[in-house]
Design a protein that fits this description.
The complex is a heterodimer of chains A (358) and B (91). In chain A, 1% of the residues lie in helices and 39% in strands. With 358 residues, chain A is an all-beta fold. Chain A is globular and about 55 Å long. Classes of the chains: A mainly beta (358), B alpha+beta (91).
């Protein structure tokens, strides 16, 4: 029986942690930690149930990763990821931190800008460049999207520790099935926002998630639509039909049912929830065949922007769903999206939302 | 001489605001500072050893950029200031 849930917010001005019991009715703020410092992502390690990782991208002092071994009470910085000597690239931002496979309890993964993957084998204390990806021949064709050239999505397969996928803006999806020795671009089925050149099918993925319990089940919101991919699929399936727009950043997947997933559609260019429908999380229960807008409890007429890492589910039953907005509101649902409650408002712009089911 | 840490750089050194060092120039003063407070190493320089943006270093009251950079000579009694630039920010 779970003791409760933490909702972990990376904001423009620090880490905010909201704690609740398993009913998820009342929330208590812990923090903020690192006030005033931009935090792109906060990750929880479900393997030890105690570690948090915060990717801080500070103007003064540069980027760093802070580690807590006591759910946020105390923090200390790890050693920065570093490109090898002679490499012209410089670690400039952390985009995403992901715990490794359950069978590798000391492994952590880090996605950075410029788009690169780093691996830690000592629980984030130090990082090494995954050169098989970072020096991939494709890198010369990668180009920055609106937010920069970032590796922002990391999916660790729940069954096979050698199987992973990562997402880069703008390059697309790369997968490994040999533990990271080799990486192959797999953008089959994904539309591209620009005409494809002879160099290949590079495209702009926005946020990719994987089922934490079902092998190979992946879901994403891209620049050009919403897509599912299951184990054995040769290409991504476009499931945008039924959504108000083909654009957005945030995506989340149900912790047990890989056919159930959530997106937060936005208008292109304006990057705000569509005026025609109003704000809402859109959920599918049938792998994208049909979509339902979930807005019970959300203020009518409001408009929200939710960033790429700005929505997450917890592991409880029924699953909790959470999204954070750039106007500093964190919303939660304890019934898989049927109704929403405001957890807190008047926070700094929220850049990422993750959960820890305790 | 003394290295004085201002703003965020004091926080990165666990709250230290002033560190006495023996050094003949700014580079060796910074090296001695980092030896005393290793947590500052990655806050001052990137992985290639380049000084980060938004870091101002003064030898007494002059920006080292207008002197000899990190080769600026120091004498007993000099003060090196490490000051976060009033700059940066995004969004």
């Amino acid at each position: 029986m779970a003791r409760g849930v933490l909702v972990l917010l990376g904001t423009k001005k620090g880490v905010y942690v909201f704690r609740s019991g398993s009913a998820r009715e009342r929330w208590r703020l812990e923090g903020p930690y690192f006030p005033g410092q931009p935090v792109y992502h906060v990750a929880f390690d479900p393997r030890d149930g105690q570690s948090l990782y915060a990717g801080i991208n500070m103007t003064w002092g540069g980027p760093r990763v802070e580690i807590s071994r006591d759910l946020g009470k105390t923090w200390k910085p790890g050693k920065n990821p570093a490109f090898p000597k002679g490499d012209e690239r410089t670690f400039s931002r952390t985009w995403h931190i992901e715990a490794g496979h359950a069978s590798e309890p000391d492994v952590m993964w880090l996605g950075t800008e410029p788009a690169s993957l780093f691996k830690s084998t000592d629980r984030g204390e130090s990082w090494e460049s995954v050169r098989s990806l970072n020096d991939h021949p494709d890198t010369k064709h990668w180009s920055p999207g609106g937010g920069g050239l970032g590796l922002h999505s990391i999916v660790v397969d729940p069954a096979d520790p050698k199987s992973m996928a990562i997402g880069i803006s703008s390059a697309g999806m790369y997968e490994t099935t040999d533990g990271g020795k080799t990486w192959t671009r797999h953008n089959e089925g994904l539309l591209s926002p620009v005409p494809q050149g002879p160099e290949g099918d590079y495209t702009c993925v926005h946020h990719v998630v994987g089922s934490p319990t079902v092998a190979g089940a992946r879901f994403q919101q891209a620049h050009t639509g919403t897509y599912f991919k299951d184990a054995g699929d040769k290409k991504w399936t476009n499931v945008t039909k039924g959504l108000p727009t083909d654009y957005g950043f945030a995506s989340a997947i149900h912790p047990r049912d890989p056919k159930m997933a959530y997106v937060f559609p936005l208008e292109f260019l304006e990057r705000m929830s569509p005026t025609a429908t109003g704000p809402g999380v859109w959920r599918t229960k049938d792998r994208g065949r049909t979509w339902t807008r979930l807005a019970n409890g959300l203020p009518r007429g409001s408009r929200y922007e939710v960033m790429r890492d700005g929505m997450a589910t917890d592991r409880l039953d029924p699953a909790g769903v959470y999204f954070g907005t750039t106007n500093g509101e964190i919303w939660g649902s304890a019934d898989e999206g049927r109704s929403w409650s405001l957890i807190a408002q008047h926070l700094p712009p929220i850049l990422s939302v993750e959960t820890a089911t305790l | 001489m003394t290295v004085k840490l201002h703003g965020a750089f004091s926080e990165f050194a666990g709250g230290a605001r002033s560190v006495a060092v023996d050094a003949g120039d700014v580079a060796s003063a910074l090296a001695a500072l980092v030896a005393r407070h290793p947590s500052l190493a990655e806050r001052l320089r990137d992985e290639h050893g380049k000084m980060r943006e938004h870091v101002n270093i003064f030898a007494n009251d002059e920006d080292m950029r207008y002197l000899d950079g990190e080769r600026t000579a120091l004498r007993d009694g000099d003060i090196v200031h490490i000051v976060p630039a009033v700059s940066g920010g995004e969004w």
